[in-house]
Every structure is written in C-alpha cells, then in structure tokens.
C-alpha cells in the first residue's frame, strides 16, 4: 500500500480565515514562498486532545516570521483559537498540527515588500516519526557532507522552510546508504543535530548537547534540558567533536516529530539505549500526557 498523499485527503484546512475542504486548500504556483523559500512553519504534537507547548509554538511562528521580515497578521491568542478549530474540525485527538505562514504572489522577485503574508493550519492523525520497532535498539545515523551554516549567513533561529533543504538532502543520502537519518556537523566541524532533530549524548553519566548557536534551539530540546535538571542528571551544553563519539555511551534525538528517539549507531560506532535515555524518554512521555 502506498503512502496517502498529503494533497488528497479527507478533512479540513484553515487558510486565510476560511475552513476549507482539504483538497481545496491551495496556493498559486507564482507565490513568493514557493520560489524564494519565504515561509516559516511549526510542527506540533497533539496528545489526548491537547497540543503540547502550544503557546510556545504559536509565539515561535510569529518570531520566525519577524526574523524573515514577515508580519504574521494574527496574535498568539488568535493562532491558538484557529488551531483548536482545526483539531475539532478534523477530530484529531492524537496527532500532528502544522501552522505555516508564507509570502504570496503580489511580487515575483527577491524584493517582497508588497506581498501578503498568508496563514494556513492543518492537522492529522500521526504516529511515531521513526520505525517503532527500533525503539529498543535505536536508529542509525550517517554523517552528512552538508553542514549547518553560521548564524551570520542564514536565519538559523527561525523555523524557516529554506533551512530544511540541506536536511532533506542529508536524510536522502543517509537513507540511500542504509541509515535512518543523518548526523549533521556545523560549519566548524562540530556536531550539531540530525536532519531535523536536536541531539544529546551521554558520557560517563553526564548528559551533553551541542550549543545551538547555528541551529534551532528546539522546544523539545528545552523541555528535555529542564527534565534533566528536575531529575538531577548532570548536564552540560558544549561543543562536541565527532571523534568524541568514541567515548560516548548513549545518544538520542529530540524534536516534536522525533519526540525522544534513541540512536543505536552513528557510522561505525555503536551505542546502547541506556538508563539516562530511558529515564528521559519515560519522563517526556509522562509529561506530554499530563493532565
């Protein structure tokens, strides 16, 4: 059975003030966001009919647009109300919600001062991002040739569509080589994250994660750091060299889609799904469904 295309489904999508039939939620081919990547988005999980960290995501959408010089014509409260309407229209209780903002077709060139900012919100039922059978042995990462750019060459703290191009290329290359995802280094050669999720390692009982100075400081990443502090797990935010992985016992990824996903192998180095990974994974799973 093939995958169900995202442009041919039953349901409803909110777009520019209207709740449209899923198949009718379309944009023009000459939209600026399509040609010049002037778009920002959010990915949010729904657990037991509640969006985890919902307001943080809504605020980040606005912040991301501001970094790109786009003005989102909605407040956080308005975005929150729209997301709730979309969940109810699609009867989603456990799934994923995707707000997106993009520049329209009023101008077709680099300058986009007179374009309208469009907003859409979709939601659908969705399970785990990675193969659930790999939960106990971990996924495999393969180091990508593409690197995260310095913060003075790209809007690295915006969840902008254009920044994910190298993630797609990296993940495709990793899959072609038999992996599940890519390990990405930054422009200096330090470990940054995977194609779309933040990365943590455990070395001799201490939890470590790269400093997010040229990639997104994820909301799930921030949540895991706080959980580690609450659980009195030694923690360090630092630069990590690829060769240091030889001295690491555990590795895991974090993200709205990835949640907390153990890594069992990076290139030729094996890791265990160890006690700190399990402790934080369990704590996160309890938190997202906390009433």
Structural notes for this entry:
Strands 8, 9, 10, 11, 12, 13, 14, 15 and 16 form a 9-stranded mixed β-sheet that branches. The protein has 6 helices and 16 strands. The protein folds into 2 domains: 12-125, 2-Layer Sandwich (D-amino Acid Aminotransferase, Chain A, domain 1); 132-288, D-amino Acid Aminotransferase, Chain A, domain 2 (Alpha-Beta Barrel), CATH 3.20.10. The two termini are 37 Å apart. The longest helix has 15 residues, at 76-90. It has helices at residues 32-36, 54-67, 76-90, 165-176, 219-230, 275-288; strands at residues 12-15, 18-21, 39-41, 44-47, 50-51, 95-103, 117-125, 139-148, 181-186, 191-194, 198-203, 206-210, 235-238, 250-255, 259-266, 269-270. The chain has 291 residues and is α+β, with helices and mostly antiparallel strands. Helices cover 25% and strands 30% of the residues. It is globular and about 55 Å long. A hairpin with a 2-residue loop joins strand 15 (259-266) and strand 16.
């Amino acid at each position: 059975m093939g995958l169900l295309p995202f442009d041919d489904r039953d349901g409803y999508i909110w777009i520019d003030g209207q709740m449209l039939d899923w198949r009718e939620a379309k944009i023009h081919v000459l939209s600026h966001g399509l040609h010049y990547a002037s778009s920002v988005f959010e990915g949010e999980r729904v657990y037991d009919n509640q969006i985890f960290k919902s307001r943080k995501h809504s605020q980040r959408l606005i912040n991301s647009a501001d970094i790109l010089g786009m003005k989102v014509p909605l407040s956080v409260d308005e975005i929150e109300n729209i997301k709730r309407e979309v969940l109810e229209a699609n009867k989603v209780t456990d799934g994923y919600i995707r707000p997106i903002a993009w520049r329209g077709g009023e101008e077709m060139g680099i300058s986009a001062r007179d374009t309208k900012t469009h907003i859409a919100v979709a939601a659908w039922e969705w399970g785990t991002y990675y193969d659930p059978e790999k939960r106990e042995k971990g996924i495999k990462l393969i180091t990508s040739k593409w690197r995260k750019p310095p913060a003075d060459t790209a809007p690295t703290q915006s969840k902008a569509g254009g920044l994910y191009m190298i993630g797609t290329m990296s993940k495709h290359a990793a899959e072609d080589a038999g992996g599940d995802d890519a390990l990405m280094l930054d422009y200096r050669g330090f470990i940054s994250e995977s194609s779309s999720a933040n990365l943590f390692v455990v070395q001799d009982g201490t939890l470590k994660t790269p400093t997010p100075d040229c990639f997104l400081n994820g909301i799930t990443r921030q949540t895991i750091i706080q959980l580690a502090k609450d659980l009195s797990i030694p923690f360090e935010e630092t630069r990590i060299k690829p060769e240091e992985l030889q001295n690491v016992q555990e590795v895991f990824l974090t993200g709205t889609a990835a949640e907390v996903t153990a890594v069992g192998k990076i290139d030729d180095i094996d890791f265990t799904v160890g006690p700190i990974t399990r402790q934080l994974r369990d704590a996160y799973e309890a938190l997202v469904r906390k009433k």
